[in-house]
Amino acid sequence: MAYIMVDIEADGPIPSDYSMIALGAVLVDEDLNQQFYGLLKPISENYIPQALAVSGFSREETLSFSNPEHVMKDFATWIAKVSKDRPIFISDNNGFDWMFVCWYFHHFTGSNPFGFSSQNLGSLYKGLTKDMFRNFKHLRKTAHTHNPVDDAKGNAEALLALKKDYGLKIKF
C-alpha cells in the first residue's frame, strides 16, 4: 500500500461553506521526495480571517490561486503516479484534512482515489504508546510551518520514526 501523508490549510472549519486554500502531500517512503503542492482558489465568499491567517496568505492572494477542479485532478494524477497499489490517506488531523480532501475530490472530480477511509497519525501513536495523553509531534524533523508540504513531510518523518523506533509493522 502507498501511504500518502496529507495536510491542508483552509479559511474556515468546513468544506463548501468555506474553502481549502492549500493542499500538500508526501509519499511516505525512506526518501520523502515525492511531494504534491497545490494552492486553491476559494469556492465561497465566506472566510474567517483568523483561520486564513494561519496559512500566511491574504484573502487577495487566495483569489489568484488555481481553479480547485484543476488542482484536484492534478492531485489525483499525482496519487496514481506515486501509488503502486491502493493509496492510503493519513494525516495528523484526519477529521479535518480528510473532510476537505474527500469533499473536494467528490465535488470536483466525481470520485476519491483514497476511497472511503483515512488514518490518523496521532491516534496511531497513542495506540503504540498505550497512552491517550501522548503526542507524536516531537518525532517530526521538519518544522511545522503551516506550509502543507512541510507539515506533511514532518508528519511522514514521524510515521517513519514509529516504524524504526516503536516497531510499527508497516510496508512502504
CATH-assigned homologous superfamily: Ribonuclease H-like superfamily/Ribonuclease H
Which structural category fits the helices and strands?
alpha/beta
Q: What is the CATH first-level class name? A: Alpha Beta
Strand order in the sheet with the most strands: 3-2-1-4-5
CATH architecture: 2-Layer Sandwich
Could you tell me the mean pLDDT? 97
What portion of the residues fall into strands of 2 or more residues?
Answer: 15-25%
* CATH fold-level label: Nucleotidyltransferase, domain 5
The major sheet is characterized as: 5 strands, mixed
Indicate the percent of residues in helices: 40-55%
Please work out how many helical segments DSSP would assign.
6
- The total domain count is 1
Explain what you see.
- The chain is of the alpha/beta class and 172 residues long.
- The protein has a single domain, classed as 2-Layer Sandwich (Nucleotidyltransferase, domain 5).
- The protein is 41% helix and 17% strand.
- The chain has helices spanning 49-55, 59-62, 68-82, 94-109, 121-129, 148-166, and strands spanning 2-10, 20-27, 35-39, 87-91, 119-120.
- A 5-stranded mixed sheet has the order 3-2-1-4-5, with helices on both faces.
- Helix 4 (94-109) links the parallel strand 4 and strand 5.
- Helix 5 runs parallel beside helix 6 (148-166).
- The longest helix is centred in the C-terminal third of the chain and has 19 residues, at 148-166.
- It is globular.
- The mean pLDDT is 97.
